[in-house]
Amino acid sequence: MQLCSTPKGLVEATIVESTNLPDLGLVCTAIINRGTLKKGTILVAGTCYGQVRTLSNEFDKILDEAGPSTPVRISGWKDELPPPGELAFEVPNLSKAKKIVEFRRQKKMVTMFVEDLKIIEKRREEARGKYRQQRFELFKQGIIARAGHSPDAYTKPNEEEIAALEIPSLTIILRCDVDGALEALKNVLSTYNAKDQVRLKIASAGVGPLTEKDLELAADIGGVYLSFALSFNAPIHQYIRDLAKSKGVALEEFHVIYKLVDRLKELLTQKITPIIERRLVGSGTVIRAYKLKDGQKKKQPVAGIKVDWGKMDRKFIWRFVRSGNATSEEENITLYEGNINSMECEGQAINQATTDMQIGVAIADKNVSYKEDDRVEVFEEVHVPQQINWNPPGF
Predict the structure, then answer these.
(1) 165-271 has which fold?
(2) Core-most of 103, 176, 191, 299, by most CB within 10 Å?
């Protein structure tokens, strides 16, 4: 198989990678398909254009020109970088380049506008159908009146909207050294499917080092959401580090993609509200019920309890249960469940009781009436951390 090209004619090249370097500005790596690229050549790639300022090879050696099949780094792009895979073509002058780019941008905007209209119309139709269904359900429940009968009829808030407000959010700002790395990370983040646990928001993503604008954006959203500026192989200048520290913005730098993903999963997990589990830590039996005067008209009921096993702590949740009648198959009755006011043993206030101790316990509710053989259960509330249910493919 013989492949060949010509060094003559207008230049055509394929963009391989794009980045933003502090000393060179917007640069990209390309492979020349045909023609000979020289300093001063004007290129158009998609909706980007530029005039070649410098040419260098993979060893950072400055080149005067580059012919077919030569990989070369090109600087001199204006405003924005061409994406990888885009074809770059030579044009005769800057005026022509600007006209081509403007035409392509307008065409792209029209295409996006048409696509957005289709999406908007589809969502509107879905919203109309959902709204009609909700109205019908509320009407059946008697929550709202027929249309036109009561303009002031009360309607319940949308449950999905209420739930969405209660879901925590994590907002990040992402900066990468090259466009290829940014696209790879975007592809990973596009697989995020745990929105019911934590909403992941990308406030900004781009190529090149972090800037003051990034820090200002992170500081603005930091008051509402947890915000992090994540840098992947993009250098962070000391001035930016100092400024971030003064603004209270967290900066984190990574050089391996899986470490960035692991850290992101940690941050998402930290935002999930832990589940509160109740664990039975002690049990006892009421052996005596009596009332004490507390300076008010109504006497304070007190339960004399023997601790059968475990420990009973004032800070824990107490449950008083009366057993039902076995002959009549009555169910157990919960007399009280919650915190207690005081706990004493032999006239001394204590905070904790253990197995075989006899204690007196009082609660705030003076209407509770205890009886002998009532059962007492004590629960400790434990916060169980949750894990984010997001496992990107390959990680």
Answers:
(1) Rossmann fold (3.40.50)
(2) 176
Give the Cα separation of 42 and 51 in Å (integer).
Answer: 4
**Can you read off the two tokens belonging to residue 101?**
């780019």
The encoded tokens of residue 126 equal 């879905």
Distance from first CA to last CA of the chain, Å, rounded? 39
Domain ranges of the chain: 9-149, 165-271, 276-384
CB atoms within 10 A of CB 101: 20
- Angle, CA of 34, 36 and 41, to the nearest 5°: 115
9-149 and 276-384: identical CATH topology:
yes
CA–chain centroid gap for 125, Å, is 29
Which of left, alpha, beta for 268 (phi over 0: left; psi -120 to 50: alpha)? alpha
What the block records as the tokens of 190 is 């596009």
pLDDT lower than 70: segments of the chain: 1-3, 135-166, 221-229, 294-297, 324-330
Tell me what pLDDT residue 147 has: 42
SS3 94: helix
pLDDT digits (tens, 9 = 90+) for 330-346: 578 889 999 998 999 88
Order the strands of the 250-254 sheet from edge to edge.
199-207, 169-176, 226-232, 250-254
Contact 48, 101 (CB under 8 A): yes
81: DSSP letter: P
- Cβ partners under 8 Å of residue 260, min gap 6: 185, 230, 232, 254
Q: Select the CATH number that applies to the domain covering 9-149 from these four: 2.40.30.10, 3.40.50.720, 3.30.70.1150, 3.30.300.130.
A: 2.40.30.10
> Quick one: residue 96, left, alpha or beta (phi over 0 = left, psi -120 to 50 = alpha)?
alpha
- Count H helices, E strands: the chain? 6, 21
Phi, psi angle pair for 252, to nearest 5°: -135, 135
**271 backbone φψ class: left, alpha, beta (φ>0; ψ -120 to 50):** alpha
Instruction: Check if the beta carbon of residue 261 is closer than 8 Å to that of residue 395.
Output: yes
Nearest Cα to Cα of residue 303 among 322, 331, 316: 322
- Strand partners of residue 49: 44
